[in-house]
Amino acid sequence: MNTAIKTSQIRLDTNLEPVLRKVLKEAEKEHRELQDMFKLMGWGDIPDALKMEIKDDVSAMVNELKGQYSSCDPYVERRRQRVVHWVESYRDGICSLDTAIEALHIKSL
Fold first, then answer.
1. What is the pTM of this model?
2. 97 and 90 in contact (C-beta within 8 Å)?
3. Within its chain, how far is the Cα of 9 from the centroid?
4. CB atoms near residue 15 (< 10 Å)
5. pLDDT of amino acid 61
């Protein structure tokens, strides 16, 4: 291998390391915050796959519970009711994890 290529690769690796460390640190922080939100809702025990499907919904619910804003949009309320219904149905053993995830998956346009 050419010395210039080796030197270039070493510089690239050295430059990427701080960026990768920062990305990992941010991901760990986001994961902790997400786990805290689910614990606040009493849903800390649900599988990560279901958590990932509803993380934006739960984040909005927690923000509203903390008084950061209030939504009276009927579509938002209906979505929240669906999230609660399917999470509780899964926790109660009424439906499978796959069914809950599929029911809560938001289809892209």
1. 0.72
2. yes
3. 34
4. 9
5. 85
